[in-house]
Amino acid sequence: MPYKCIGNKLMHKKGGVWSVKQTCKSSDNCKAAMRYLYSIDKSGPPKGGKK
């Protein structure tokens, strides 16, 4: 699913319409959340670190 940041709002495109998925504290946090969501879409949810 496509994502984009506008200020501190993380938007996603669903059904041809951009809507707010998440509101972050800062634009840097928004970019980090977008990277995380793209990584989940690509490889599935994180499985945790080595123990």
Describe this structure in words.
The chain is α+β, with helices and mostly antiparallel strands and 51 residues long. The chain has one domain (3-43). The protein has one helix and three strands; from the N terminus they run E-E-E-H. It has one helix at residues 27-43; strands at residues 3-6, 9-14, 17-23. The chain has a three-stranded antiparallel beta sheet with strand order 1-2-3, covered by helices on one side. A hairpin with a 2-residue loop joins strand 2 (9-14) and strand 3. It is flat and about 35 Å long. The mean pLDDT is 87.
Strand and helix map with partners:
Layout: E1 3-6, E2 9-14, E3 17-23, H1 27-43
- Which regions have little confidence, pLDDT < 50, spanning 5+ residues? none
What structural category arises from helix and sheet content?
A: alpha+beta
Annotation, overall tally of beta strands:
3
* Number of domains as seen in the coordinates: 1
Helix content estimate: 25-40%
H/E element sequence: EEEH
Q: How confident overall, as mean pLDDT?
A: 87
Distance between the termini: 32 Å
Gross morphology is: flat
Main beta sheet, described? 3 strands, antiparallel
Q: Could you tell me the strand content as a percent range? A: 25-35%
Radius of gyration, in Å, reads 12 Å
Name the strands of the widest sheet in spatial order.
Answer: 1-2-3
H/I helix tally: 1
